[in-house]
Amino acid sequence: MGLIEKIETFLNDLLLKLGALIAKLTPQILKKSIKKLSLFSDSALRFLKSMPPILWERFQVFLKKNVAQAKQIDFRKRLGSIANDIKSKNPKAGKFKTFFLLPFKILALWLQGLSPGQVLLLLSFTGGSILALIGIGFSGKKMALSYLDTGRFPASEEILSYDRPDYYKKERRHAMFVNLRLPVYFAQINEVKNVDIDFTVTLSNRNTRMFIEKHDFKIRDHLILQIEPSVASFPIEEEGKQVIKNKLLVEINEFLKQHEIEGTAEEVNLTYILAN
Fold first, then answer.
1. From CA 193, how far away is CA 187, in angstroms rounded?
2. What mean pLDDT is predicted for residues 44-69?
3. Residue 255's pLDDT band (boundaries 50, 70, 90)?
């Protein structure tokens, strides 16, 4: 365990002990208040979660009721009666004048029964809403045309993600093997008979490294059984070293796959070769 990991473990234990001490020193009244607040927040959250379907159901009932009432109203007859009322008060009014006065008459009937203050407030909010919608429409059109003219787009369109470098904590993902004897063909007189290697494997995560170190003997047996024998002098050459590294990488990944480990061997480096 490295120094940083020891410091991290010590700080975690210290925080746990500090939390337990604070829990002991906290007054009972405060604990009850926190518990009640937590229960209230849970109930409020459940209530908020249940609100959308209730509101949707009530909206559907309201919509059905108003649609049913709207179907019962004869709008053509109602508009005809309003137009007749306008003609009765203005006998000389023609079709154009009647059509022009019709919206104002409908508005007057809609505001009938309201006080002057209520009428002013209602008309102010209605006019403000209409002007706001018009302004939003013009602003959106202006922005769209400006982007089309300049060829520029919002800065938030491209999201730059930060990736950790490949060497980030790479030394903590190393697993070392010492004195692995490669299988070789029977050598002739005065030729190399044994080849022992030391090598380092770089794993994709620390969990895989811990698994490799824990099953050192099993993986040695797997490598000895799966690596084909070669001429004893071949692993000493540059081409032989590369072949041995590739074979070790493939077989270690196969060993991890057989044991269903979520990790891979990324790199193999030969650190020492002894041939005698």
1. 6
2. 83
3. very high
Distance of CA 23 to the CA centre of its chain: 34
Which residues 6+ apart lie within 8 Å of 274 measured at CB?
Answer: 194, 195, 196, 197
The counts of H helices and E strands in the chain are 8, 3
Q: Which amino acid is at 142?
A: K
Report yes or no: 219 and 249 within 8 Å, Cβ to Cβ. Answer: no
Amino acid at 209: R
pTM for this model (two decimals): 0.40
8 Å CB contact between 270 and 199? yes
Tell me how far apart the alpha carbons of residues 140 and 132 are, in angstroms, rounded to a whole number: 12
Q: Which residue has the tokens 């102010």?
A: 124
Residues 206-247 have pLDDT tens digits of 888 889 889 988 998 898 888 888 877 777 788 888 888 899
Angle of CA points 93, 97, 99, to nearest 5°: 120
